């Protein structure tokens, strides 16, 4: 079971295969559970203790950052992430990033962004569309069209507590849609990135 894996100078943490989206472009739909030469499908969700043990088995100081990202939406385990981050900050004081769809406040039923203060250094949020209708068509969220505005609101709230907040899109979008998304990110006051699509 792959709980942690390396990519560049980052250590990635894979804690769930559940997701609140079913994106049409998701690599999980295009490959048999293989990413970067690894099978990221979990037999079950690892406990916090198992996650920490897997991290501690690594040569931590060769990494630049920890990244919560795997074959699922990590914020479905928001409170476990907070617990893990608290330990990692105390033990290693390294940068921590979360790659997310931005549904954490919907998942938790409350605004949890203040609980990430001092623990998370960067959050990368998959924006993927210029409006709620197109987002739902593409991402097929469990929350329906309200997921899009909730995602943007999450990004804006994260800005108060997290040093780097990025909204991202995949480069398969038409250029004018990418520009529209960039303008929305600028209006919110967060960074914007175009991700390369890996089929």
TrEMBL record:
PROSITE patterns documented for this protein: RADICAL_SAM (PS51918)
One family name in Pfam for this protein: Radical_SAM
Domain Radical SAM core stretches: 5-199
Gene3D superfamilies with a match to the protein in the record: Aldolase class I (3.20.20.70)
InterPro entries named in the record: Aldolase_TIM (IPR013785), rSAM (IPR007197), rSAM_sf (IPR058240), rSAM_TatD-assoc (IPR023821), rSAM_TatD-assoc_bac (IPR023822)
Keywords assigned by UniProt, alphabetized: 4Fe-4S, Iron, Iron-sulfur, Metal-binding, S-adenosyl-L-methionine
Protein name: Molybdenum cofactor biosynthesis protein A
Species classification: Bacteria, Bacillati, Bacillota, Negativicutes, Selenomonadales
